């Protein structure tokens, strides 16, 4: 099984901050990685797929990069609506999620 | 618009079984794979398995093999996930999700583009 490790687990930030979340795969997954945002009581919502492709309707302040085993999700200027938990997901070999990164208000 | 609507919350006892439904609308039901994912505070998001609504073929995650069965009813565009021999650590929210790109994208696999609202299962004596 491919393991996905996110860091940090929790991140405290302020409105306007640049935020970066990292996801590492236990083996190469090429570019087959997605990022999801989840708010309490809601289902995950896809933000980024194929490592760097922005899902339709997602604000351009979200971006993704990486390939192989190291990936990042960046929020260029954190907005109030962005406080949530973020998950990475690999889909190179079946499907596996990271453990999540909670972005909270500083 | 694409929608996946799941059945309501369930409370059951250890050793029992539960069957959760996921009703799809707004797209051609047999053209897209449906996955089941469960979410618990301790284990995060866990992929449980996948069903091809066109051919009813399934693949289950190893940790659920023998306890999970996924089926579908094309007349109602509904997918079902049954989990048997329930334990307290099966207490979680169960979510269905549609795989983007559709059946014709195989052999490549894809991310999930639409999700159900989740079904909370509580297993307690």
What does the secondary structure layout of this molecule look like, with pairings?
The complex is a heterodimer of chains A (106) and B (125).
Chain A: E1 4-7, E2 10-13, E3 19-25, E4 33-38, E5 45-49, E6 53-54, E7 62-67, E8 70-75, E9 85-90, E10 96-97, E11 101-105
Parallel strand pairs in A: 2-11
Antiparallel strand pairs in A: 1-3, 3-8, 4-5, 4-9, 5-6, 7-8, 9-10, 9-11
Chain B: E1 3-6, E2 10-12, E3 18-25, E4 34-40, E5 44-51, E6 58-60, E7 68-73, E8 78-83, E9 92-99, E10 112-115, E11 119-123
Parallel strand pairs in B: 2-11
Antiparallel strand pairs in B: 1-3, 3-8, 4-5, 4-9, 5-6, 7-8, 9-10, 9-11
Please describe what this structure looks like:
- The complex is a heterodimer of chains A (106) and B (125).
- Chain A is mostly beta strands and 106 residues long.
- Helix content of chain A is 0%, strand content 50%.
- Chain A has strands spanning 4-7, 10-13, 19-25, 33-38, 45-49, 53-54, 62-67, 70-75, 85-90, 96-97, 101-105.
- In chain A, the strands form two sheets. In chain A, strands 2, 4, 5, 6, 9, 10 and 11 form a seven-stranded mixed β-sheet that branches.
- Chain A is globular, with a radius of gyration of 13 Å.
- Chain A starts with a strand and ends with a strand.
- In chain A, 35% of the residues are buried.
- The model of chain A has no long low-confidence stretch (mean pLDDT 97).
- With 125 residues, chain B is mainly beta.
- Helices cover 0% and strands 50% of the residues of chain B.
- Chain B has strands at 3-6, 10-12, 18-25, 34-40, 44-51, 58-60, 68-73, 78-83, 92-99, 112-115, 119-123.
- In chain B, strands 2, 4, 5, 6, 9, 10 and 11 form a seven-stranded mixed β-sheet that branches.
- Chain B is globular, with a radius of gyration of 14 Å.
- The chains are: A mainly beta (106), B mainly beta (125).
- Chain A binds chain B through residues 32, 34, 42-46, 49-50, 55, 87, 89, 91-92, 94-100, and chain B through 35, 37, 44-47, 59, 61, 95, 97, 100, 109-113, 115-118.
């Amino acid at each position: 099984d491919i393991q996905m490790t996110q860091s940090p687990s929790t991140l405290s930030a302020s409105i306007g901050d640049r935020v970066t979340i990292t996801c590492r795969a236990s083996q190469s997954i090429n570019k087959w990685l997605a990022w999801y945002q989840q708010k309490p009581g809601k289902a995950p919502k896809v933000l980024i797929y194929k490592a760097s492709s922005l899902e339709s309707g997602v604000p351009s302040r979200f971006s993704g990069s990486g390939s192989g085993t190291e990936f990042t999700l960046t929020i260029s200027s954190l907005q109030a609506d962005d406080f949530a938990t973020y998950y990475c997901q690999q889909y190179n070999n079946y499907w596996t999620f990271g453990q999540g990164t909670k972005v909270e208000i500083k | 618009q694409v929608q996946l609507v799941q059945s309501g919350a369930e409370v059951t006892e250890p050793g029992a079984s539960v069957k959760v439904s996921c009703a799809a609308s707004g797209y051609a039901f047999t053209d897209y794979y449906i996955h089941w994912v469960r979410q618990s505070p301790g284990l995060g998001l866990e992929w449980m398995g996948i069903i091809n609504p066109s051919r009813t073929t399934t693949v289950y995650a190893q940790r659920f093999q023998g306890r999970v069965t996924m089926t579908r009813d094309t007349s109602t565009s509904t997918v079902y996930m049954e989990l048997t021999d329930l334990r307290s650590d099966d207490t979680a929210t169960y979510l269905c999700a549609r795989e983007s790109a559709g059946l014709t994208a195989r052999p490549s696999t894809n991310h999930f583009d639409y999700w159900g609202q989740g079904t909370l299962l509580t297993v307690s004596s």
